[in-house]
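User: Please work through this fold.
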Amino acid sequence: MNGLLDDLVGPFERISPETLATTLRDDYALDIRALTRLDTERDDTFRVDHTGGVVLVKVAHPSDSPELLALQDAALAAVAEHDPELPVPRLVPTTSGGASALLDGRIVRVLTWLPGVRATDRPWRPQVGGAVLGRLSLALAHLTHPAADRILPWDLRRVPGLAPYTDEPLLVDAFARYAAEISPVLDALPRQVVHNDFHPGNVFVGESGAISGIVDFGDVVLTPRVCDLGVSLGYLIPDDSPGDAVRAEFTAGYESVVPLTDEERSLIPGLVVGRELQRIVINEELGRRDGGSHAAPRVRRLLHRALEDWA
């Protein structure tokens, strides 16, 4: 099938640590002690221990354009300018002052390493998380970039475009309802550049319980701002207990910084359903394409619970 997901993940040859080490020495003057590959799907990402400390190195997917990566860099720069206390990575320049280097035609960027462990592995306070997302939203609110208004399957505006990838009745009905009730309203809501992937897997927590890092700006996009909140809430549905209190606490934290309109609030249950639909359909389609297993039984359970909340 040709369509929305064609450019999301394409095959590419992995960069070897030895090849990358040469580029890092030549372009960043790093005295490398260890290169550790991190598990990523779309690019090559490494933790690099060197004599001066630790950095994160990302070698972009071959099809990622310079404009797209410049958008991500601009988002990081906007956060650093407008809310420098937010714990996001900072771009490390090359020895010549450039933002990146080239390796076999692919763009290499070096970022500062953030401390802590992922919020999936250490408790965090949802209200604090919501407030941090609100601050991140404010920091990005005035960012403009020619690459921001892009077609991204993970953008909640694009949910109806995923409908052709399934014939499962429950999903078909949910897609149809989303297209009828959510999509027509979204375009009239306040829009801005958002992180679009703020969830426990992309948030680091320090030993004190404070948020110590926000990572993965790969899904940055211009979209209705409430979509950023909808994305986050889609990951805050507990398996074994009602999630209303957790989501209400996170939302309260967000609104302590960015008050929403009544219309924005009314769409949140549907947006949460939209994120679960994305997680199921995109991952299963990618699994079919690469021959791997992307079954998501837990996410299917979360979809059923989200549908119950979308009365």
Notes: The first helix runs from residue 17 to 28. The CA atoms of residues 126 and 307 lie 22 Å apart. The radius of gyration is 20 Å.
